Amino acid sequence: MNGIVKYFNNTRGFGFIAPLIGRPDTAEEVFFHTSSLVGLKPGERAAVPIETEVSFDLVRGKGGRPQAANVRLVRINGKTLAGAHKTNNPHNRHSSLGDELAL
Question: Which domain holds residue 87?
Answer without folding.
Answer: 2-101
